[in-house]
What does this fold into?
Amino acid sequence: MTRGYGDLTEKAADLVEEMWLEALERRGTATMLVVGDSMRPYILRGDRVVVSAVPDADGVRAGDVVLLRIEKALVVHRILRRIGAGRKLRFRQKGDATLESSVVGSDAVLAKVVRIEHQDGDARPVEPGWSSERLLLWAAVCTTDLLYRSGHLVKRKLRALPGVRPGGRLSGSIKRSMRRAQERFVEQLSSKVRPT
It folds into this structure.
C-alpha cells in the first residue's frame, strides 16, 4: 500500500512547526498567522500575533492571552484563572468565542501574546494589566464558561431524578442559544475592546 500526500503534508507541517518553535526559543519572540476563529472578535482569522516566550509560567495571569500547546496543536487562548502554585500550577483556558474551557498544565504555556496586527492595518501592543474593557471581556468569557459548565452539572443532576430520561450532550438548541448569547455580548464589547 502506498502512502498518500496526507502523510507528507503532515510531516512537512510538523517540521515547519518545530522550526518555528526553535526560532521562538532562540529569539524569544516570533510572529504567527491566526488560522482559527476561537478568539474572535478580539483576534480574527488572518490577523498576526507577536508572541514572547514564557520561560516561567509563574508570570502568567488571569486575562493574559497566551500561546499554548494542547495535545499536538498550537492554540492562542485566554487564561481564565490560575490553579495551584509551583510545580502543581495549572491554568483554566478558553477561546473567547468558544463555549468549553479546559485545564492545562503550566508546561503547556509557551508564550504570551504581546502584539496583535489586525488585517485592517491596526496594530497595537497588548499591555499587561487591566483596562476596563479588557476586564469586561475577561468577565464575559468567564461567565459563558461558568454557564456552560453549570449546564452540564444541572443535566447530570436531572438525570439522577426518577423518571428523567438520561440524555447525551447538551441539546443542540441550548448550545446554539448559549453560543448566540455569548456572541452578542462579546460583539457588543468588541467595538470597544481592541488590544490597548
The mean pLDDT is 79.
